[in-house]
């Protein structure tokens, strides 16, 4: 490779692997290290290790499991998205469960792929998310229409996520206002913002989407 080629070659996508099973991490590393343009900069078996490595290794994208010893991947996703908002996060899980997907998205994940997915799909997810997009496993998208809005829901603020979850639980505007120490008018404003961002017209459709997305309580 010439000096010009080196200078113009894009920087590799720096990846941090988080899973409490060493064999899973080893398998992922072997697959990803073999792909040009990827660089695995660290591995962690716990959420605490992952946070420390996120600071020291400066990954572009974090791949994390959900169920781990010493803290969940959902909590880790939330911590990373708050402390390092430019870092992209892909959840790689064995759980084919809409509630886990909803929690991951609400925490700040940019994608969710099942562990038994083909390697090509995991690679596609990494590329898509690293470039600023979102990616959700095809099996999840087939389960219900609400999955098509997973990318859009990232536009919601943390407060709007909370209110959408409250609506799924069947709470009224007054109950939501009391729960979060807000005025009813403020809750109504948040609901209008949610509908606009999700491109939903009526109140009934908003409630229907909330229940489909988070699941009834």
Radius of gyration, in Å, reads 19 Å
Lateral arrangement of strands in the main beta sheet: 2-1-3-4-5-6
In total, the number of strands is 6
Task: Give the CATH architecture of the largest domain.
Answer: 3-Layer(aba) Sandwich
Strand content: 5-15%
Portion of residues within helices: 40-55%
Topology-level CATH name of the largest domain: Rossmann fold
Secondary-structure-based class equals alpha/beta
Task: Please mark out the parts with pLDDT under 50 across 5 or more consecutive residues, or reply none.
Answer: none
Number of helices: 12
Under CATH, the homologous superfamily of the largest domain reads Response regulator
Principal-axis shape? elongated
Quaternary state reads single chain
Name of the level-1 CATH class of the largest domain: Alpha Beta
Mean pLDDT: 84
How far the N terminus sits from the C terminus, by CA atoms, comes to 58 Å
The domain count comes to 2
Element string (H = helix, E = strand) = HEHEHEHEHEHEHHHHHH
Instruction: Report the biggest beta sheet as strand number plus sense, adding barrel if it closes.
Output: 6 strands, parallel
């Amino acid at each position: 490779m010439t000096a010009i080629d080196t200078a113009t070659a894009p920087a590799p996508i720096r990846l941090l692997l988080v899973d409490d099973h060493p064999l899973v991490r080893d398998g992922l590393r072997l697959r990803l290290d073999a792909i040009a343009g990827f660089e695995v900069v660290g591995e962690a078996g716990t959420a605490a290790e992952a946070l420390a490595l996120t600071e020291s290794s400066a990954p572009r994208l974090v791949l994390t499991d959900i169920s781990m010893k010493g803290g969940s991947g959902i909590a880790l996703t939330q911590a990373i998205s708050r402390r390092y908002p430019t870092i992209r996060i892909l959840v790689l899980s064995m759980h084919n469960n809409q509630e886990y997907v909803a929690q991951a998205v609400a925490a700040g994940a940019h994608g969710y792929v099942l562990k038994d997915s083909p390697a090509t799909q995991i690679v596609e997810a990494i590329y898509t998310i690293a470039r600023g997009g979102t990616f959700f496993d095809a099996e999840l998208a087939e389960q219900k229409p609400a999955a098509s809005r997973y990318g859009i829901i990232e536009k919601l603020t943390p407060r709007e996520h909370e209110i959408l979850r409250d609506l799924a639980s069947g709470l009224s505007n007054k109950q939501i206002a009391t729960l979060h120490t807000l005025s009813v008018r403020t809750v109504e404003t948040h609901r209008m913002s949610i509908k606009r961002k999700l491109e939903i017209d009526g109140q009934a459709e908003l409630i229907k989407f909330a229940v489909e997305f988070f699941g009834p309580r």
